[in-house]
Amino acid sequence: MNDKDYIKIFEDTEALMYGHFVLSSGMHSDAYFQCAKVLQYPKYLSLFADILSSHFADISIDKVISPAIGGIVLGTEVGRQLSKRTIFSERVDGEMQLRRGFEIKPGEKILIIEDVLSTGGSIKEVSKLINRHKGDIVGIGIIVDRSITPVHLHDNFFAITNQTAKIFDKNNIPDHIKDIPAIKPGSNIVASDTV
Predict the structure, then answer these.
(1) 149 lies in some domain
(2) Is 0.90 surpassed by the pTM of this model?
(3) Which domain covers residue 25, as residue numbers?
(4) Rounded Cα gap, residues 63 and 48, in angstroms
(5) What secondary structure letter does DSSP report for 189?
(6) Rounded distance, CA 159 to CA 113, Å?
(7) What pLDDT is attached to residue 78?
(8) Which pLDDT value is given to residue 155?
(9) At what angle do helices 42-56 and 72-82 cross, to 10 degrees?
(10) The domain spanning residue 135 has which CATH number?
(11) What pLDDT, on the 0 to 100 scale, is given for residue 194?
């Protein structure tokens, strides 16, 4: 498969949306990958998890972790395919934390799985969390890398597909989306801080 094949899957499942969106970083975009919409289909969840688990199959992994909420479904399936325990982190009071009895022991080899990379913020937060618990990050895998500028997150970083994104500062929104109400993806809430 190639990038065009992946775009077709995203468009067919309405996972690739066009409009005006406010990303979790606070930046704005005219397109958004809502991977939950593609991952609700078992054949695509299996497809993407299989690509990721195959890529990381030859390294030693103790646990798979994903940031809530976007990466949980994918991370769980990757963990299942690799026969590894799977946990997730949650943002509490603005800081990524482990809850629900999850733990990372010192020296545990951790694979981070996320759905989409835009700025790398969530993955960086999860990496800091793992480092606080003295875990060893052995790789990072994602479905879509839509970052504008290269973001170095780990030497063993793997993206299934790279898609060019147009991301804008809230003070520099282009005319073609300026008059479209901005949506915060995942919430269907019109953002109040758009222009």
Answers:
(1) yes
(2) no
(3) 3-190
(4) 18
(5) E
(6) 10
(7) 98
(8) 93
(9) 60
(10) 3.40.50.2020
(11) 42
Query: Residue type for 164, please?
Result: T
pLDDT < 70 positions in the chain? 165, 186-195
- Residue 99 has which token pair? 């809850």
Please, is 177 exposed, middle or buried when counting C-beta atoms within 10 Å of its C-beta (0-12, 13-18, 19+)? buried
Q: 93: exposed, middle or buried (C-beta count within 10 Å: 0-12, 13-18, 19+)?
A: exposed
If you write DSSP's letter for every residue of 36-86 in order, what string do you get? HHHHTSHHHHHHHHHHHHHHHTTS--SEEEEETTTTHHHHHHHHHHHT-EE
What number of other Cβ atoms are within 10 A of residue 78's Cβ?
28
The pLDDT assigned to 186 comes to: 59
Write down the pLDDT at residue 82. Answer: 98
Q: How many domains does the chain have?
A: 1
The confidence score (pLDDT) of residue 121 equals: 85
**Cα torsion angle, 149, 74, 191, 89, sign:** negative
Give which of 171, 167, 169 is closest to 195, Cα–Cα: 171
Compute the radius of gyration of the chain from its Cα atoms: 17
